[in-house]
Amino acid sequence: MMKLGRSAIALAAAFLLSGALPAAHLVLVAGASGRSGSAAMRLLDEEGYTVRATTTNRARAVERHGAQWDWVELDVRDRDAVFAAMQDVDYLICAIGTRSLLGGNGPEFVDYAGVVNLVDAAVEAGVRHFVLVSSAAAGPYRERSRMILFARARHWKTLGENHLKNSGLDYTIVGPSGLRDDPAEGRLRVMARADYDTGRVAIGDVGMLTVDALTNPDARNKSYAVVRDESAAPGAWREMLKAIEIDSVTEESPDHPLMPDPE
Fold first, then answer.
1. Nearest to 259 by CA among 121, 139, 119, 118
2. pLDDT at residue 84 is higher than 50
3. Rg (CA), the chain
């Protein structure tokens, strides 16, 4: 049995004292106060899901996004607290991402170790589907950036992805291109990440894709990139997604060798 630390015990006690019964279709959104997470959170609410929104700073999240959400202050680097926060969760959207490239809040500890903690807790909780918002430029086969710090960030993101792929969970990995602070437009091109070059995409569309992936069988066990494409008909991305192969038969397979971390 897992030994819980003080923060995890306090978090679990808060759930119990609330008197709330387990909610049907409860989605935990990790990183809900960020751009992609908040876009997904609002769409989940519109579609009738119950949302548990995690953030590193509850007061700031309430100020920016409102107090109507079930905000849980959570540091994904705290493994015990992550396991406690996973209580009764049906689905998980992980939209965490560090803005620091170095130090204890860098990619190794957030984009990798934080994802590992969320994946392991989701396995124990029996989560139905795990959606990870990653990067179009990550993946085991991607060429490394000439900028060493960005190369390291993509390396740790890829290691986090591989842990998810090997977990036994049903999953989807959404790889956005450059993010724009725009609402959903629906004119998208989704593709295998091996085919990605460059592009931009609206945050609203990323939120839409993550929520769709929770229950879309055509998104199961796939990793893909997404860019805005004005020439695409609204909704055409669904047929594109259907045509993408699952990771087990592509270069996205977790058994594909990962390029070494740049020195």
1. 139
2. yes
3. 18
In this prediction, residue 139 carries a pLDDT of 85
Residue with tokens 């004005």: 230
Residue 201 near residue 226, CB atoms below 8 Å: yes
CA distance 248 to 121: 23
* pLDDT of 141 above 80: no
Contact in structure between 104 and 28 (CB atoms under 8 Å): no
In CATH terms, is domain 23-249 a member of 3.40.50.720? yes
Contact between residue 92 and residue 118 where contact means Cβ atoms under 8 Å apart: yes
- Name the DSSP letter for residue 233: P
Average pLDDT over residues 120-144: 89
Would you list the domain boundaries of the chain?
A: 23-249
Q: Do 171 and 98 meet the contact criterion of CB atoms below 8 Å apart? A: no
DSSP 13-53: HHHHHTTPPPPTTEEEEETTTSHHHHHHHHHHHHTT-EEEE
Residue 159 CA neighbour count, 13 Å, CB half: 19
Residue 64 half-sphere exposure toward CB, CA atoms < 13 A: 13
The label of the residue with tokens 């004292």 reads: 17
Asked if 60 and 32 count as a contact pair (C-beta separation under 8 A), the reply is no
Terminal Cα-to-Cα distance of the chain (whole angstroms): 39
